[in-house]
Design goal:
heterodimer, A: about 500 residues, alpha/beta, TIM Barrel, five-stranded parallel beta sheet, B: about 130 residues, Rossmann fold, 5 helices, about 45% helix, about 20% strand, globular
Chain lengths: ~500, ~130
């Protein structure tokens, strides 16, 4: 046992970052959504907001995430698939038609092109006459885990870290309500890592970002309160609750002891949680509602600040409107009916939870030491260490499932032959040609001289060291596209090529 | 002794979900096959070029982003154009039933969805190659 009992809202925040927790304010219900065109996505967002969702979470298609316009040959087959296709300000304006940006907070899952999408959001705010001081939201802006697990990197690590620091610095001055980095463990967990590895690799990424910004000359307490985290909530109920508690404890110590933060807000690990997509099964999809409920409950008992609950059909396709609504209702039932919100960290003090928390913190600390000994997270990633750790864990999991050491209901036990036909969200195959046509029209309509001038300014600035954000904002205001901006930056920074082998 | 079956596991398009591809690659390797993994983000052209260069017996295509119809169709067209015969092609990922039918018509022999075992994939390859 600890020498003294920890308290919610007190350093090291193991028991939560607020003394009153959900008695004061419920978590933000933030369902990740976006698909097809800006128009369809706008419709889904207005629907979700109308159903009591309290924040938006924007999914972009892969071309947008990797810096290709919808009409680029690299975008073949991917336009509008895993999220909405955004190539220019015209698309972004359409997504937020009828959604006042001073009334919602928007989280964007965007990394390599985070600066550009943030610029687009700010340009929409200008058009709505909403001052930047009144907009709030998050860009994921966490490139390191992209090299490890998620794969939407563009540039090599060094210029990527510069772009991240540019965003942090720019927002500290211009957009104070913006969360500049959401350091993610979610995707590494989905890729197969363990709970302890999820904590360690996520915090190691966080350390690298803080270090980068400190080296830029920023004062740690000026930006650290705007850093947030993003965790997975997997199927092992108590282990997951302990994971959130351990992560908070470790981060508080890292910020105070390693970086000398003075402001308690810099030490508080605030996080978004998504239930684990990889635990959903294509077999007997209704079972996924139960899985998601348990995972969501663990996230709430672990003290999450916002939550996405997965829809039951996500092992098969994007969620339909109906399944997306059931997913939202799942967390609303936990929030409004279950009573678990009455007490902060209600499991704190339980010998089992406390010892699990200590164990996970210890295991994560060992990984963090190992990463320090490898020369830091960037070196650990470049050497292939992190990648291998994750995929070996994934392989061990698969073998355990095939040997039935791990049971997955409906997959390797409790199997039924009855095949449920489920309704599927489909993407219009005519979307890609239509997007090509629309973009051609946009390129004809806009002021070509301005576009050329903007891109020349961007190229010159990219070769130097000044903050690129104001220049990128100027580009998007003039309808320069995501692909055009990235083409210039690719030319200056080069492209990252992964060198992974099994 | 005959040489081991040589398999190319390939990620098509911009999709970065490689857990399934990697686990299958590791599993087939441990089942005694020779496995080449392309890594993420390959165009159909790159996949077919790798298959020719590595002289593989089997190609396993993976996609979880919904781009499979456009990308896998292009891979199959290119294999035909390059007159590559006798290479077994299978696929895996998040692929709806309706598309599975269409992919099989293109000559993709089997599609393994979520929950498939390495053992079933290895058995399928061994049987098909016999």
């Amino acid at each position: 046992m600890k020498p003294e009992i920890e308290q919610p809202g007190k350093f090291p925040f193991t028991r939560g970052i607020h003394a009153t927790m959900y008695r004061g304010k419920l978590w933000t219900m933030r369902q990740y959504a976006g698909f097809g065109t800006a128009k369809e996505t706008n419709k889904r967002y207005r629907y979700l907001l109308g159903q009591g969702q309290t924040g938006l979470s924007m999914a972009f298609d892969l071309p947008t995430q990797i810096g290709y316009d919808s009409d680029d040959s690299m975008a073949l087959g991917e336009v509008g698939r895993v999220g909405v296709a955004i190539s220019s300000l015209a698309d972004m304006e359409q997504v937020f038609t009828g959604i006042p940006l001073d009334k919602v907070s928007t989280s964007m899952t965007i990394n390599a092109t985070a600066g550009i999408l943030l610029a687009l959001y700010l340009a929409v705010a200008e058009k709505q006459n909403v001052p930047w001081s009144k907009v709030s939201g998050t860009v994921q802006n966490d490139i390191l885990k992209e090299y490890i697990a998620r794969g939407t990197y563009i540039f090599p690590p060094k210029p990527s870290l510069r772009l991240i620091a540019d965003i942090v610095e720019f927002c500290a001055k211009e957009v104070p309500g913006w969360n500049t980095i959401s350091v993610g463990g979610y995707h590494m967990r989905e890729a197969g890592c363990t709970a302890a590895q999820e904590i360690a690799f996520t915090l190691a990424d966080g350390i690298t970002y803080v270090q980068t910004c400190v080296e830029r000359g920023l004062n740690v307490d000026d930006f650290a309160p705007r850093l947030a985290f993003f965790f997975n909530c997997h199927s092992n109920f108590f282990e997951e609750i302990a994971k959130f508690r351990a992560a908070r404890r470790l981060w508080a110590h890292i910020m105070r002891d390693r970086f000398g933060a003075k402001n308690e807000r810099s030490m508080m690990l605030r996080f978004h949680t998504q239930t684990a997509g990889s635990t959903l099964t294509a077999q007997q999809p209704d079972n996924n509602v139960v899985r998601t409920t348990l995972e969501a409950l663990a996230a709430v008992l672990g003290g999450t600040q916002s939550l996405h609950t997965n829809a039951k059909d996500e092992a098969i396709a994007l969620p339909t409107e109906e399944s997306a609504l059931l997913a939202l209702r799942t967390q609303q039932i936990i929030a409004y009916e279950s009573g678990v919100t009455a007490e902060p960290d209600p499991l704190g003090g339980s010998p089992y939870i406390e010892s699990l928390t200590d164990q996970l913190a210890q295991q994560a600390r060992e990984y963090l030491n190992k990463i320090d000994n490898l020369g830091g997270m960037l070196k650990a990633i470049e050497s292939g260490y992190v990648y291998k750790e994750i995929y070996h864990a994934a392989y061990e999991h698969q073998k355990a499932v095939e040997r039935k050491e791990k049971i997955i209901v409906g997959v390797n036990e409790c199997v039924s032959d009855k095949k449920l036909k489920i309704q599927m969200q489909k993407i219009d195959p005519q979307l890609e040609p239509r997007r090509r046509h629309d973009l051609a029209a946009l390129r004809k309509k806009r002021n070509a001289a301005k576009v050329t001038r903007c891109l020349a300014t961007l190229e010159k600035a990219a070769q130097g060291t000044e903050n690129l954000m104001p220049i990128i904002v100027d580009c998007v205001r003039n309808y320069v596209t995501v692909g055009e901006i990235c083409k210039v930056l690719r030319g200056t920074f080069g492209e990252h090529r992964a060198n992974h082998s099994i | 002794m005959s040489r081991p079956i040589k398999v190319l596991i390939a990620k098509a398009g911009l999709d970065g979900h490689e857990r399934g591809a990697l686990v299958v690659a590791m599993g087939l390797r441990d089942a005694g096959m020779e496995v080449v993994y392309t890594g993420i983000r390959n165009t159909p052209e790159q996949i077919v070029a790798a298959a020719i260069h590595e002289d593989v017996d089997v190609i396993g295509l993976s996609s979880l982003s919904g781009g499979h119809m456009a990308q896998f169709t292009r891979v199959m067209d290119l294999l035909k154009k390059e007159q590559i015969k006798g290479v077994l092609v299978f696929a895996g990922g998040i692929i709806p039933d309706d598309d599975v039918k269409k992919l099989k018509k293109l000559g993709i022999k089997e599609v393994f969805g979520p929950g498939s075992t390495i053992a079933s994939i290895a058995e399928f390859i061994t049987k098909s190659r016999r």
